[in-house]
């Protein structure tokens, strides 16, 4: 009898679902594993208002398979001019769960993001007052800063002053990738700072980008880091520290747009994310900590109830599809596509 593990249904606290045909195609890979997801607002145009978030949420719900049990949790895309009142209204009406801060120019579709914390001070004050979390893409946008140092520089130059100036603001440092970030979050004593960690940053270091040639399907932002950073975030994720939780950052792009002279940043990991995390916890001898990381810590951070249902995975190989096809013949190549995972989902709807 092979090993099985049953846990409370997990949530994905950082997810890109896109829109239109891509949304329709990728959504089921998330809903077969996750009960809820924090949905990123970096559409074109970005989700900046309550009205746009309501409409996007309706499109997500309309795209669900009939048997899916899934709640999308919407976020507002913060711009320099976003009125504090719009954020407060969206939060109080149950449309916005949180606000996403992209430093302008840091990543995919971030061109309408924030140019300086001072410009959004009123919005942050209001969020602090009502307990509305701020989710940060924590990378410096200074072109003079080495791409591998951008997270550490952001912590020093932007995040530290922001936490000092808004001492009650709830903040999630999204997709942490470095030893500095892991230490910064675990050393914080205020209880209002959390962090998400992706499967790719737990499984691979930056060598993966250059294995025998350039590997666009391993390219995301923040970029994969050196081995010592991978080991540090593995320790953080598997430590049982409640400040760390799942956030896949699954970010689909068409294969043709990644395999290009200027390939897009983003890894579509929804088909394999949960099994990948589980594999990491097994390798670290921390299976007893997996449910907290996947299904408890994030909900507690956001002050949301834990999910009632369970899912079961078995230690049995499963294949990741080489490609996920879109109706128009385009394809998305998933993370670990064409390879075999050691764990298989044995209940829940299949895609
Ligand atoms: O690699 C990334 N892709 N990082 C981000 O921050 C955005 C995401 C996307 O939307 O594709
Ligand atoms: Zn993201």
From TrEMBL:
Cofactor note: Binds 2 Zn(2+) ions per subunit.
Catalyses which reaction(s): (S)-dihydroorotate + H2O = N-carbamoyl-L-aspartate + H(+)
Key word Phosphoprotein present: no
Record has Kinase as a keyword: no
Sequence positions that bind Zn(2+) 1: 14, 16, 100, 249
Start and end residues of each Amidohydrolase-related domain: 12-316
Keywords for the protein's UniProt record, in alphabetical order: Hydrolase, Metal-binding, Pyrimidine biosynthesis, Zinc
Pfam families: Amidohydro_1
Name the UniProt record assigns to this protein: Dihydroorotase
Source species of the chain: Variovorax defluvii
């Amino acid at each position: 009898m092979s090993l099985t593990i049953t846990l409370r249904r997990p949530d994905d606290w950082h997810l890109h679902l896109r829109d239109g045909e891509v949304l329709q195609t990728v959504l089921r890979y998330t809903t077969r594993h996750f009960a809820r997801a924090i949905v990123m607002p970096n559409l074109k145009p970005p989700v900046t208002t309550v009205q746009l978030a309501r409409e996007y949420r309706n499109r997500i719900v309309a795209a669900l398979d009939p048997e899916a049990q899934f709640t999308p949790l919407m976020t507002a895309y913060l711009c320099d001019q976003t009125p504090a009142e719009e954020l407060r209204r969206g939060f109080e009406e149950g449309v916005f769960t949180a606000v996403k801060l992209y430093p302008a120019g840091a990543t995919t579709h971030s061109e309408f993001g924030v140019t300086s914390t001072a410009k959004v001070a009123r919005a942050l004050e209001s969020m602090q007052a009502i307990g509305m979390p701020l989710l940060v893409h924590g990378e410096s946008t200074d072109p003079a800063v080495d791409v591998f140092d951008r997270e550490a520089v952001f912590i020093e130059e932007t995040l530290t002053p922001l936490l000092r100036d808004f001492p009650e603001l709830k903040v999630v440092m999204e997709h942490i990738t470095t030893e500095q970030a892991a230490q910064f979050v675990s050393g914080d004593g205020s209880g209002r700072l959390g962090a998400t960690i992706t499967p790719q940053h737990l499984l691979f270091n930056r060598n993966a980008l250059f294995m025998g040639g350039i590997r666009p399907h391993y390219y995301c932002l923040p970029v994969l880091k050196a081995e010592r950073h991978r080991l540090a975030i593995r320790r953080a994720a598997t430590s049982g520290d409640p400040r760390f939780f799942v956030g896949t950052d699954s970010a689909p792009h068409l294969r043709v747009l990644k395999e290009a002279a200027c390939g897009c940043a983003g890894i579509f990991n929804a088909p394999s994310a949960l099994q990948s995390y589980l594999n990491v916890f097994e390798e670290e001898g921390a299976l007893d900590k997996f449910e907290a990381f996947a299904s408890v810590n994030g909900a507690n951070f956001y002050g949301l109830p834990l999910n009632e249902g369970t899912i079961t995975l078995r230690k049995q190989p499963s294949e990741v599809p080489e490609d996920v096809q879109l109706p128009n013949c385009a394809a998305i190549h998933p993370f670990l596509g064409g390879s075999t995972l050691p764990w298989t989902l044995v209940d829940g709807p299949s895609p």
